[in-house]
Amino acid sequence: MARAISIILPYSFSRVLFRLFSTFFPSDYFKEAKKKYEAKHPNITIALKAVETDDAHLEENLEKFVKTTGTAMLSGQGPDLIEMDQLPSGDYVKRKMLANLGDIMDHDPDFKKDSISPISWTG
Fold it and tell me: What Gene3D superfamilies does the record point to (predicted)?
């Protein structure tokens, strides 16, 4: 019987990164963004995780999503990227469950700030 073996090579060689993006509502926008990003970065695979629900179960599934996401993040098993619109972001900040991307970018010698577009939030 054949077995699959995963080999992780040093950074200087080839590596495949797996990233998880979590959101409550499925979105064609995120599906398209995933497709474009993976095409531009063939060494990265993104798994989109969303909740399939209907109006009758929306509140129940949202409560479960908030609880399971919080538990996963507290245990260090949370997603790499997350849409926060349905989550208690204030609680996450207080508990230091979110990374400050500005600090990470400032301390990464390989990160090129001019490679991203500025984002402004209103409302």
Answer: Periplasmic binding protein-like II (3.40.190.10)
Neighbours of 44 (CB within 10 A): 14
Domain ranges of the chain: 17-111
Q: d(Cα 9, Cα 16) in Å, to the nearest integer?
A: 9
Spell out the residues 6+ positions from residue 59 whose beta carbon is closer than 8 angstroms to its own: none
What CATH code would you report for 17-111?
3.40.190.10
Residue 116 DSSP one-character state: S
| Contact call for residues 105 and 113 (beta carbons, < 8 A) | yes
Is 100 in a helix, a strand, or coil? Answer: coil
Cα dihedral sign, 64-67-70-76: negative
Average pLDDT over residues 9-23: 58
In the numeric block, which tokens belong to residue 121? 């939030």
pLDDT at 118: 60
Cβ neighbour number for residue 69 with a 10 Å cutoff:
22
pTM exceeds cut of 0.70: no
Q: Residue 51 is which amino acid? A: V
